[in-house]
Amino acid sequence: WWCFAFFLLSTMTLAVVQSFAPSILKAVHGVSVEAATLTISAYMLCGAVGMLVGGFVAVYGQGHRWSSDRVVALAMTGGAVLLLVCASGWLGASGTMVALAATGFAVGVGGPSRDMMIKKATPKGATGRVYGTVYSGLDTGFAISPLLFGALMDHGWYTATLAGAALVLLLSVWAAVGVGRRTRPAL
Q1: What's the pLDDT at 187?
Q2: For 85-117, how does the pLDDT look when each residue is reduced to its tens digit (9 = 90+)?
Q3: What percent of the chain has pLDDT over 90?
Q4: Surface-to-core class of residue 34, CB atoms within 10 Å of its CB (0-12 exposed, 13-18 middle, 19+ buried)
Q5: % of the chain surpassing 70 pLDDT
């Protein structure tokens, strides 16, 4: 269930970025629709590059006894900090678009370690049940996120929407650490 919570929470953040970032960029910074949607493409491309890099990080981490949950926690914390900076408005339009793309990279780096974390948490003979339960957190997160964050958007609280997504991503760090606590061997 910790793994389910992790997927639900981290996907809620992805849903905010994919669904609401163009509207937020337009409302807060006056960014054109074209530039705002290009930012989503950059977020997704940077996420893919982050996954590639994250694969090397996962392999390197195993050789250096880094736990998967710690790599995930660091990557997701980095993404949450970037989202909070975006919510602050300090960076202006261009800086916010670049920071959102960098958020995709940060979250992407955690992807391979996330999968290793789930694999490690799966008891022998329960792979199908665990993966079915865990990955249903993706669909649940995508379903819940627009309901919760759409209410913020409806009230015109655009930066609060990004800040809320960052806080939810930080909650996913808590879930990843919870998975790690349950899968580490006792000392």
Answers
A1: 44
A2: 999 999 999 999 999 999 999 999 998 888 788
A3: 66
A4: exposed
A5: 96
- Look-up: residue for tokens 């992407």? 108
Q: What is the 3-state secondary structure (H, E, C) of the chain?
A: CHHHHHHHHHHHHHHHHHHHHHHHHHHHHCCCHHHHHHHHHHHHHHHHHHHHHHHHHHHHHHHCCCCHHHHHHHHHHHHHHHHHHHHHCCCHHHHHHHHHHHHHHHHHHHHHHHHHHHHHHCCCCCHHHHHHHHHHHHHHHHHHHHHHHHHHHHCCCHHHHHHHHHHHHHHHHHHHHHHHHHHCCCC
Q: Work out the angle at residue 98's Cα, subtended by the Cα atoms of residues 163 and 162, and round it to the nearest 5 degrees.
A: 10
The tens digit of pLDDT for each residue in 132-167 reads: 888 898 899 999 999 999 999 999 999 999 999 999
Residue of 7, 20, 8 whose CA lies nearest to 144: 8
| Euclidean distance between CA atoms 125 and 167, whole angstroms | 35
